[in-house]
Amino acid sequence: MQQRFPEERIVIASHNPGKVWEIGELLAPVGLQVVSADSLGLPEPEETGLTFAANAELKAMAAAIGAGLPALADDSGLVVPALGGAPGIYSARWAGPDKDFGLAMERIRRELAGAEDRSAYFVCALALGWPDGSCEVFEGRVHGTLVFPPRGALGFGYDPIFLPEGESETFGEMAPERKHAMSHRARAFAQLRHRLSDG
Ligand SMILES: O=c1nc[nH]c2c1ncn2[C@H]1C[C@H](O)[C@@H](COP(=O)(O)OP(=O)(O)OP(=O)(O)O)O1
Ligand SMILES: [Mg+2]
């Protein structure tokens, strides 16, 4: 692995502080020094892709080429089958320019009114991009149920309305270590670590 990371540094190509923190925690066992896209002054690319994987790749490549270092990007979101898959890749955009997830969660509650199916899942596509233009994508999911009103103030985004399968606490109520043992992001990271340890 060391020869693949000559500088032992990796750029976290995300401008979301909640995500950057979680990625730092999940990456700690890998032993690489983490540099944020913000600290390098890298711009936030427009997410023009139509899939989580395409957006993750576009963010990773912009950072890898901009920084001349390997870069890791995460594109993720909440998929609600009863809403035809919304908000999906538009999960961040549903919170509007002020990133108001109270508003986004309320919109889901409203649009779901009367729907029997309360199932939902989070998806995380992680892209590892290299300055030479190569890129690999890993995906993780976690299934659960939506609950209203929102519960808990931990985590970020849609965590307070997401009750993972078989659990009694929402991601917003759960200690971070517990979320990291089962989340979509943790599952994508497990695949990434597996790939890195393969050499
Ligand atoms: O574990 C999670 N717990 C709760 N909500 C989550 C989670 N994971 C993704 N989400 C929701 C909120 C987030 O804003 C959006 C991702 O959108 P996404 O474009 O990938 O990220 P972003 O715009 O927030 O930051 P950036 O693109 O700079 O990495 O999905
Ligand atoms: Mg984004």
Structure description:
The chain is an alpha/beta fold and 199 residues long. It is 30% helix and 22% strand. It has helices at residues 17-27, 52-67, 101-112, 176-182, 184-197; strands spanning 9-12, 33-36, 71-79, 119-129, 135-146, 162-164. A 6-stranded mixed sheet has the order 2-1-3-4-5-6. Helix 4 (176-182) packs across helix 5. The radius of gyration is 17 Å and the shape is globular. The termini are close together. The relative contact order is 0.16. Magnesium ion binds at residues 47, 92. Belongs to the HAM1 NTPase family. This is dITP/XTP pyrophosphatase. The active site is at 75 (proton acceptor). GO terms for molecular function: dITP diphosphatase activity; ITP diphosphatase activity; metal ion binding; nucleotide binding; ribonucleoside triphosphate phosphatase activity; XTP diphosphatase activity.
Supply database-style keywords.
199 residues, alpha/beta, Maf protein, six-stranded mixed beta sheet, binds 2'-deoxyinosine 5'-triphosphate, binds magnesium ion, magnesium, metal ion binding, hydrolase
